[in-house]
Amino acid sequence: MSSTSPASAVFEYFPNLSDRQRAQFEQLDALYHDWNAKINVISRKDIDNLYPHHVLHSLGIAKVINFRPGTRVMDVGTGGGFPGIPLAILFPEVQFYLVDSIGKKIKVASAVAEAIGLENVEAVHRNVIEEKGKFDFVVSRAVMDFSELVKLVQKNIHREQRNALPNGIICLKGGDLGHELQPFKRKSETWNLSDFFKDEFFETKKVAYVAI
User: What would the pLDDT profile of 100-144 be if each residue is shown by its tens digit?
Assistant: First the structure.
């Protein structure tokens, strides 16, 4: 496939994708540009960095856990579908439940998932406080402080384990997380995304995990 593909940033780090997955990742470019012109889910100046700053960033979670088939994952504050949609492309046998309290953002996430034929995604306009479903993991991109997120979603974490990492919350965060993770010291772990991706955007970016 041509290296001029905007999705080549993804293919470089995830070389074992099927033709279908490669096509789905490539389709995101036109879809998000089109939707973003109507409903602003990615800042206007950042839409041209869709793949490194949004798609690849979302896939950082896949560098620390390989979700097993049948796993259920809730993406809280998904916005236009990050990290849920890139992860759903990568893990077609995992169920992703995308939640956001802003209806027009869920409209975008839902439309993108449908356009690329993702059958493992459900996008719901809801405040997570009202969510009663049970999931193996909650994922999120820096929507709030860990302590607040834990209070909101610990009710949604399933007791039954099916993955190498115990069930819990996995967030994409930036900067120094020492203070934020202090209350969870014994059951938290962080990984630097700069260990996996060489773009300078990732120098301060981390994946943070708290077992529930």
Answer: 999 999 999 999 999 999 999 999 999 999 999 999 999 999 778
User: What is the DSSP secondary-structure string of the chain?
Assistant: --TTSTTHHHHHH-TT--HHHHHHHHHHHHHHHHHHHHS-SS-GGGGGGIIIIIIIHHHGGGGT--PPTT-EEEEET-TTTTTHHHHHHH-TTSEEEEEES-HHHHHHHHHHHHHTT-SSEEEEE--GGG----BSEEEEES-S-HHHHHHHHGGGB-SS--SSSPSEEEEEEES--HHHHGGGGGGEEEEEGGGT--SGGGTTEEEEEEE-
Positions of the chain with pLDDT lower than 70, given as ranges: 1-3
| pTM summary value | 0.97
Answer whether 59's CB lies under 8 Å from 128's CB.
no
